[in-house]
């Protein structure tokens, strides 16, 4: 696990790539590093929880067959989470794209369930850029777009470089004020 965390810090950044003919661009590849890191933390917490539960049951005198079931379930879930932490971020990243055009900001994402989100410029109220501590470490940011309406009125879009998130925020706000499109 130590090697995986070290690898995560040394992964080279892939430049965002535009999908052929569609104008969609990739989010920053360092998003995968953070996604993988969050999932590895979840895996470790899960493993520690099952170990603690097994020890408590053992000390409490619970029959060994029950402890065996808890340990077996814990191993299966922990291995599933570990596989997910190592493989899922790449699958999700490969299917996470965006583009800003005359219509507004469009986002495509989803490995199993595909989502296509379109945020028309006319619906944009304002936009924010935020960074958590790990995002700051990797120079990433989250662009949050606030739209008119009640359902899904705040749309967070993690995965931009901080610089690109600020640039897009400024473009969206400028277009909204001027009434012009891209």
Quick take:
Strands 1-2-3-4 form a 4-stranded antiparallel β-sheet. A 3-stranded antiparallel β-sheet has the order 5-6-7.
β-strand number: 7
Strand order, main sheet: write it out: 1-2-3-4
- The assembly state of the depicted protein chains is single chain
Shape: elongated
Distance between the termini: 45 Å
Approximate helicity band:
40-55%
In sequence order, what are the helices and strands, one letter per element?
A: HEHHEEEEHEEH
CATH architecture of the largest domain: Roll
Query: Do you know the CATH topology of the largest domain?
Result: PH-domain like
- Any idea of the CATH class of the largest domain? Mainly Beta
| Computed CA radius of gyration, to the nearest angstrom | 21 Å
Would you mind describing this structure in some detail?
- This protein has five helices and seven strands.
- By secondary structure, the chain is an alpha+beta fold.
- The strands form two sheets. It has a four-stranded antiparallel beta sheet. The chain has a three-stranded antiparallel beta sheet with strand order 5-6-7.
- The chain is 51% helix and 23% strand.
- The longest helix is centred in the middle third of the chain and has 31 residues, at 64-94.
- The radius of gyration is 21 Å and the shape is elongated.
- It has two domains: 2-15 and 29-94; 97-178, Roll (PH-domain like), CATH 2.30.29.
Task: Provide keyphrases for this structure.
disordered N terminus, single chain, 3-stranded antiparallel beta sheet, PH-domain like, 7 strands, 4-stranded antiparallel beta sheet, 182 residues, alpha+beta
């Amino acid at each position: 696990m130590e090697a995986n965390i070290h690898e995560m810090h040394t992964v080279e950044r892939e430049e965002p790539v535009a999908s052929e003919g569609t104008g969609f661009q990739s989010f920053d590849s360092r998003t995968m590093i953070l996604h993988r890191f969050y999932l590895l933390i979840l895996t470790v917490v899960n493993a520690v929880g099952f170990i603690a539960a097994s020890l408590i049951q053992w000390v409490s005198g619970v029959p060994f067959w029950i402890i065996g079931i808890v340990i077996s379930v814990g191993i299966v879930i922990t291995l599933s989470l570990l596989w997910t932490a190592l493989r899922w971020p790449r699958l999700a990243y490969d299917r996470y794209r965006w583009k800003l055009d005359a219509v507004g900001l469009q986002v495509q994402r989803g490995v199993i369930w595909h989502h296509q989100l379109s945020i028309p410029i006319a619906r944009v109220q304002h936009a924010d850029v935020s960074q958590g501590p790990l995002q700051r470490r990797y120079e990433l940011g989250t662009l949050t777009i606030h739209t008119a309406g009640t359902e899904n009125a705040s749309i967070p879009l993690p995965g931009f470089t901080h610089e690109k998130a600020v640039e897009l925020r400024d473009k969206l706000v400028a277009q909204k004020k001027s009434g012009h499109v891209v």
